[in-house]
Here is the input.
Amino acid sequence: MTASFAARLIAWQRSHGRHDLPWQGADAYRVWLSEIMLQQTQVATVIPYYQRFVASFPDIVALAAATEEQVLEHWSGLGYYARGRNLHKAARLIVERYRGEFPSEFEQILELPGIGRSTAAAICALAYHQHRAILDGNVKRVLARYCGIAGWAGDKQIEAQLWQQAENLLPKANVAIYIQAQMDMGATVCTRSKPKCGVCPVQTDCVAYQTNQVAQLPTPRPRKAVPERHATFLVLMHGHDILLEKRPAQGIWGGLWCLPQLDDGGELVKEYVQRNGMSVNERAELAAFTHTFSHFKLHITPVVLHVAHKPLRVQEAGRVWLDVDEALQAAIPTPVRMMLELISRST
Here is the structure.
């Protein structure tokens, strides 16, 4: 008789799964942090951010005591910055409600900012060894193929089917090992492209493998035209100092320091210069490039303006002049970091 799906995954995990991730076997705080960082982000990218983050904020109390600015500085370059802001908000709530101890009840965890059903379940299973199924991106792919579930996982009916299978296949024991096995399988064997079906422990009864549908499952998101926007980013320099503006708390790059941005069809560079009482000694355009978000593309044209003096009109809250190298240490989005690194190398 063939061992159950869960038993085969658990055996595979013990022999072939990942065992050296820095958050494995850690407390709930570190499991939570890793789960948030791993949303939309690869493990290899996350590890150095995670290590730097826990070095600066070793526990929930330390994270809650930090400023949002400090948290975002540690998140700079990781993307999806609402994750960092919600992490900080949740830490303060945990200090307020639970005296800095991460809650162990699923419903309490689910109430925290930035935590959905699967993330809450992962924390319960991995940190507290509770009997909880998860359904992150990797698990959706594994289950869609193994169970032969067609249809885009973002559709509510398809997602409900996947959740049902996740619950049905959950073992009674060794849940933490099983959950890790699901995630590792999706990340290293049942990958989106070029899956390694030859070494898969469940290929004998995988519907997608047996019916030659591995390439078709899971069903991709329905294609639609990606909106495109254009913007000019002003690289305002006085000597080696550069002007940064703080973005509004909500929206793209919320709370981060950014270069002044002029959107296509809005204010022109000349108008911005005049409005802020600037005298420009030198102007140059850097090569335009495109930054892709999850829901649109932003075509960026960087314009470098060397000003004769730091105008009084930009000496106000939410704006700051920093040395370029110092600005690179601030909470800045990836495209701004790319431009500042280019400037730093050339000066």
